[in-house]
Write a structure and sequence with these properties.
Elements lengths: L1 E5 L9 E8 L6 E5 L6 E5 L4 E3 L4 E3 L4 E4 L6 E5 L4 E7 L20 E3 L8 H6 L1 H12 L8 H9 L6 H7 L4 H11 L4 H19 L6 H7 L5 H12 L7
Antiparallel strand pairs: 1-2, 2-9, 3-8, 4-7, 4-9, 5-6, 7-10
Length: 244
């Protein structure tokens, strides 16, 4: 499997994390697991039909799909004819490009886009990432992110902040914060914070030396103990820490 990421143009950097391309190879076919990161995305299939959402959704050639934010892992089957191109949006920026219902209606789902929102396959095959820059630059409706300051607070604390403290810092109520997160991200503030905390723990586990205990990492990341951390990792990845 070959996977690469490309940064968007400067104008789109506040709204898009990266573009990506995934191609299968002749040596192996496999189920590929994606862990939750709190972001929505858009993907198009340029290869044979690809199974995703743990086998429940078939992505067909030439069609474009919106992928809602996830609160659990998701498996896709990658074979030698797989060729996917995608866009990873930053949190709460889906509404900057698309008119759509509340994001919580898309959580954990992969939904085919209507033609008016879909990519042009003929153009995308020529220069895919230049096409993405043009496509999203033309579609941008607003440069305001309703939740940017709240998301910044969550990331600056690696997810170790209470919803009450978030609402207090951002001069809003807990209830309003809940509504806005469901609308613009598709997750509750607590779910999103938990994902960022999990992602931080995952990064530390993967990059730390083997002498560091899981208990030590658990305390650093704000978990009660190593069992709490282990359970969160299993919930988000389906794997135990030793298999990461």
């Amino acid at each position: 499997m070959n996977y690469k990421k490309i940064k968007p143009c400067k104008e789109l950097a506040p709204f898009i994390h990266f573009y990506w391309e995934l191609k299968g190879n002749e040596l192996e076919s496999q189920w590929e697991r994606v862990f939750p990161d709190g972001c929505a995305g858009v993907v198009t299939n340029l290869g044979n039909t690809c199974l995703t959402d743990n086998g429940s959704v078939s992505m067909e050639f030439g069609k474009t799909y919106v992928v809602g934010a996830m609160n659990s892992f998701k498996d896709s089957f990658i074979d030698n004819d797989t060729h996917l191109l995608g866009v990873c949006l930053k949190p709460a920026t889906f509404a900057n490009f698309y008119s759509y219902s509340s994001q919580n209606e898309l959580t954990n789902d992969t939904i085919e886009f209507e033609k008016s929102n879909s990519f042009n396959v003929d153009k995308i095959l020529v220069t895919p990432f230049n096409y993405f820059d043009y496509f999203f630059s033309e579609r941008i409706k607003s440069k305001n992110n309703q939740l940017q300051s709240v998301v910044n607070d969550i990331h600056s604390t690696n997810g170790q902040i209470s919803v009450f403290e978030l609402s207090k810092r951002n001069f809003t109520t807990v209830r309003q914060l809940e509504r806005n997160f469901k609308k613009y991200i598709g997750l509750s503030p607590k779910e999103y914070s938990n994902i960022i905390r999990f992602q931080n723990a995952l990064s530390i586990i993967k990059n730390s030396n083997q002498n560091r205990s899981l208990l030590d990492i658990a305390f650093e990341c704000g978990y009660y103990d190593h069992s709490h951390l282990t359970n969160e990792i299993k919930r988000n990845t389906g794997l135990s820490p030793s298999l990461l």
